[in-house]
Design goal:
Largest sheet: 8 strands, mixed
Number of helices: 9
Number of strands: 14
Helix content: 25-40%
Order of helices and strands: EHEHHEHEHEEHEHHEEEEEHEE
Structural class: alpha/beta
Distance between the termini: 32 Å
CATH architecture of one domain: 3-Layer(aba) Sandwich
Strand order of the largest sheet: 1-5-4-3-6-7-14-13
Radius of gyration: 20 Å
Shape: globular
CATH topology of one domain: Rossmann fold
Length: about 350
């Protein structure tokens, strides 16, 4: 039985045709790529939760420690009442900390591409916070920047919450386009709270994506399993290996799947040839400098209010506020691919 404050749901998710189209587009170009947003089927979402518990994966623990220590201080910077819109809500562990610290929340709107994960976590939150109306939205928010429930008549401020360093999965142009779409969604007077992973010793970053239990490897390979199941493909998972390295020039971690031999994979009736050691680039995770990040956000119409970091300066949570739009500014709806941390 659903809690009374769980007010229906919106399903704006993409269909199988989009999945097939994106997969074939990525695997028929050079170098081969796959959109990281497709990691998050039901099994992939569970595996990512396990990744967050591995000793090497510091990102989630550091972000949680910041929200636990500074959650009230963060929300004191924002005039209440507010409604919280969370992008890529996942299991919503960090959301509980934010809602615990908030004094007046008029609505919570989580948006996630994995419907099963989304509904399960929102149901749990609705029971924990029975006074807050909640509306889960299953969507690829990079393709749905102006959602129908974000009505223009409300007077409470909106806070878009984007935890987990997911912004780092995008290259510079894609990240700028997403920030612009979020600013457009917030319209005039709104706030954006985002988690970012900071530059540090490459050994620490590489270990986080190469855990000893090989959970991240299973997460990466699950993408091929999903393609097999949903698109009638014949990937042999034991003939691909997980690879994660830090690209110092681009300031990003990269995840790949490496073919261990020459082979041809069929996606239904489409052959995809692989050379020995050829890789599929499945995810990038950019690492930031705080000052450079603030300057970058100004390009999208945000000004930095304040940032908070953990004691070791591994991770940061940054609060941004919209700045007035320039005259004759024309918003262009972006088309992006987005994944997880």
């Amino acid at each position: 039985m659903n809690p009374s404050n769980l007010i229906g749901e919106y399903d704006l998710s993409i269909g199988l045709d989009n999945f097939r189209q994106d997969v074939l587009h990525g695997l028929t170009k050079l170098p081969k790529t796959l959109p990281p947003k497709y990691f998050y089927d039901a099994r992939g979402s569970r595996l990512f939760d396990f990744i967050c518990e591995t000793p090497e994966y510091y990102l989630t623990r550091k972000e949680i420690s910041i929200l636990e220590k500074y959650g009230s201080q963060i929300l004191e910077q924002i005039p209440h009442p507010i409604r919280i819109i969370e992008l890529g809500s996942g299991s919503s562990i960090k959301t509980r900390l934010l809602l615990d610290a908030a004094s007046a929340v008029t609505a919570y709107i989580p948006i996630d591409i994995s419907k099963e994960h989304l509904l399960r976590s929102t149901h749990a939150l609705a029971q924990r916070f029975p006074h807050i109306p909640m509306v889960p939205v299953c969507a690829d928010y990079t393709r749905q920047p102006a959602l129908p429930l974000f009505d223009r008549g409300r007077r409470d401020r909106s806070l878009v919450f984007f935890p987990g360093s997911t912004l780092g999965n995008l290259d510079e142009d894609e990240a700028l386009a997403l920030l612009q779409s979020i600013r457009h969604m917030l319209r005039g007077d709104g706030y954006f709270l985002v988690g970012i992973d900071l530059l540090k010793d490459p050994k620490i970053m590489e270990a986080a994506y190469n855990d000893a239990e090989r959970v991240t490897a299973a997460f990466n390979l699950n993408l091929l399993h999903r393609i097999n199941v949903e698109l009638d493909a014949d990937f042999k998972l034991n003939e691909f290996q997980h690879k994660a390295v830090f690209n110092a020039r681009e300031k990003r971690m990269e995840m790949h799947l490496r073919s261990v031999r020459h082979q041809v994979v069929w996606i239904k009736d489409v052959p995809i040839p692989f050379g020995k050691d050829e890789t599929i680039h499945t995810e990038s995770s950019y690492k930031y400098d705080l000052h450079e990040f603030a300057a970058f956000c100004r390009k999208a119409g945000f000004q930095s209010v304040r940032s908070w970091t953990d004691a070791e300066h591994y991770f940061a949570v940054v609060l941004l506020q919209t700045t007035p739009a320039k005259p004759n500014h024309r918003y262009i709806k972006p088309r992006l691919s987005l994944g997880g941390e």
